[in-house]
Structure formats: structure tokens, C-alpha cells
Design brief:
The chain contains six helices and two strands, in the order H-E-H-H-H-H-E-H. By secondary structure, it is mainly α.
């Protein structure tokens, strides 16, 4: 289904890690954007996302999703250490092998500023 969606006319943005399972789509990439945040900020944003998704009460101690939330946050915290299956070292290796440009966004800047950088790196379509 993803292949069909990407084959449609017009541009697209795909978010997330495609390492391995999505390698078949690499020839379709015009640009890969890799966002790097300090771990404390990344984890705080994940916590906010999870609270928005499930509700603050559901992820709090005693909540219906608390155990899953705690496990997910521990997994996410291990990203930099390489002790989980999807980790920073694996992503760096994948990025280094890409045939397309890679834009690294390494500042905690407003979304509009990051968008400006991304749009500035995209080639106009014919």
C-alpha cells in the first residue's frame, strides 16, 4: 500500500525510520531529513506525545497504559546507547549509505525555521 501511495503524482513526506524494511523506497527519495535533538528534549517531546495520545491519566502510575508507557520510554531512552534494535548507530550507518542528500537538523528551532531549511534543499519538480 505504501508503494502505491508513493507512486501517486505530487510530492510526499514520509516520517519515521525505514531502515531495512523500507529500503526498497530509497530510489524514490529526493532528500532525507534527520532530526537530532538532545536526549532530554527528545524524551520530553515523546512524553507529551504519549500523554496526548492516551491521556495523562492513562500513562500515570495506575493508569491503563502506564506499564506500556514506561517500557516505551525506557526503550526510547536507550536509543543513543545502541542497546535497542533501532538505535542511533544503526541510523547513522543507514544515512551514510544513502544515494540522496541528507539534511541534518541539529538545533532546537521553531518548526517554521526547520521547514525553511528543508524547502531550501528541495529541488523544484519539473
Amino acid at each position: 500500500m505504501l508503494g502505491e501511495a508513493l507512486a501517486r503524482p505530487g510530492g510526499w513526506v514520509l516520517s519515521g525510520s525505514l531502515c531495512g524494511w523500507g529500503d526498497i523506497f530509497i530510489p524514490l527519495f529526493d532528500l532525507v531529513v534527520f532530526i537530532v535533538l538532545p536526549p532530554d528534549i527528545r524524551l520530553a517531546r515523546l512524553a507529551l506525545r504519549e500523554a496526548g495520545r492516551y491521556g495523562a491519566g492513562a500513562i500515570a502510575p495506575g493508569g491503563a497504559h502506564h506499564a506500556r508507557y514506561e517500557a516505551f520510554m525506557a526503550w526510547a531512552a536507550a536509543y543513543e546507547t545502541g542497546s535497542v534494535e533501532r538505535n542511533r548507530a544503526m541510523h547513522e550507518q543507514w544515512l551514510a549509505a544513502l544515494p540522496c542528500p541528507v539534511l541534518r537538523l541539529t538545533t532546537v528551532a521553531p518548526v517554521a525555521e526547520h521547514l525553511e531549511h528543508v524547502l531550501g534543499r528541495l529541488s523544484p519538480r519539473a
